[in-house]
Amino acid sequence: MGDTEALVERARRIADDENRRLWERTPASKALFERAVRSMPMGVASSFQAWDPYPVYLREGRGAFVWDVDGHRYVDVHGGFGCMVVGHAHPKVVEAIERAARTGTHFAVTTEATVAFAEELCRRFSAERVRFANSGTEATMGAIRVARAATGRDHIVKIEGSYHGHHDPVMFSVVPNSDLMGGRDRPATTPMSLGIPAGTAAYTHVVPFNDLGALERLLEDQGHEIAGMILEPVMMNIGIVEPAPGYLQGAKDLLHRHGALLIFDEVKSGATIAPGGAVDRYGVVPDLACWAKAICGGTPGAAFGGRADVMEVIERGAAHQGTFNGNPLVVAAGLATLTEVLTGDAYEHLAKLGSRLAQGCRDAIAAHGIPAHVVDLGAKGCVSYRPEPMTNYRDFLETLPEVYLASYPWLLNRGVFMTPGDEEQWTLSVQHTETDVDRYVEAFGEFCAALARA
């Protein structure tokens, strides 16, 4: 048996042992699951929350910690899939929500606070005009519609292995199996879900991340039909993959040469990897961008926007509606988050914590010879079980999911609440401390040691 095969077998044994322990210590989660499946498919509110045989259900969160329904406390690095950079029940966010609740949570009429939030988003993310939504899915849906209306074209381009929400045009090539991917240069448009009309695939084209050559060839063939390209400027559906130097600007230049637009999906990267997201970190301003998750302090808010001359099509008939868009409750939480919590000092704190966590994981990986690498982007980071950093989705297929599947129950059993899935990242909050980070590092180091000797 080769080194990799032996490592995978050890990981499977650890996973079996740790999952048995997890099931023994979470009987209340099991009972709640058995209740939940009688009213919700898979027993969860969103399919991403499911786990086999049942997920751990949470009861509450405060600061950097969450408690499950069995009463166990965890250091939270799940962060609500990246929403909770403010931490749980942050006093400034709680105060803003309470104030909004006392003065009216909903009018379906724009308030002064909504205008102020729009101004802050424009300032922070280098946008000229914005509109609000209630989720990342709605934000990307709105941006694609605006791009199509502004260009008069129907086709879009997306990245192989990226997720942009669950509306039909982008539910292709999200996690395709190797036998359904097509060629490296022209990946197949493979649907992720049942219920998507077959004809939809004709309007969505797929290219690899970090590959300007593939994008250029597609545009040379069909550029006259393409309204724009949507991409995560930092790919975050396979762990974390940073853009190669020059890639983002090169993509923008190629698209503009063919009359198409560049859309950044900053649902995950916005307000996490820098105060102004990827635009701030990499210096490339897209034509349109989408934000959600961290910008609203854990409330269900989102936005999209960009160039004024592009967004202007909303005034000329490109429909954008939403009863709850920019509602006072979410706006209050968002304003508090961006203006009172996620300040310059906060990002310095997050950078120090992220560096400490990443280096601790790197040290453990090196000490025990684990085939993995670490990415550190401040509040966001991850361990991926492949020795070399990834450049695209096909590199992700070379990782060892069995090792992640062992690490997940291992860390849960030692008081660290993880995201379910090796495609996700950790999220740190302003309420985390060095002690919290060190708890993760200690548990991860013990995991690496066990994996090396099992």
What features would you describe in this structure?
The protein has helices at 3-24, 27-36, 79-82, 91-103, 112-125, 136-151, 212-222, 247-257, 277-282, 308-311, 328-341, 344-368, 393-396, 401-413, 434-453; strands at 58-62, 65-68, 73-76, 129-133, 155-159, 204-207, 226-231, 261-266, 288-291, 302-306, 373-377, 380-384, 416-417, 426-427. The two termini are 15 Å apart. It contains 15 helices and 14 strands. Helix 1 packs across helix 15 (434-453), helix 5 (112-125) crosses helix 11 and helix 12 (344-368) packs parallel to helix 15 (434-453). The relative contact order is 0.17. The chain folds into 2 domains: 3-76 and 343-453, Aspartate Aminotransferase, domain 1 (Alpha-Beta Complex); 91-341, 3-Layer(aba) Sandwich (Aspartate Aminotransferase, domain 2), CATH 3.40.640.10. The strands form 3 sheets. Strands 4-10-9-8-7-5-6 form a 7-stranded mixed β-sheet, with helices on both faces. It has a 4-stranded mixed β-sheet with strand order 1-2-3-13. A 3-stranded antiparallel β-sheet has the order 11-12-14. Helix content is 41%, strand content 14%. It has 454 residues and is an alpha/beta fold.
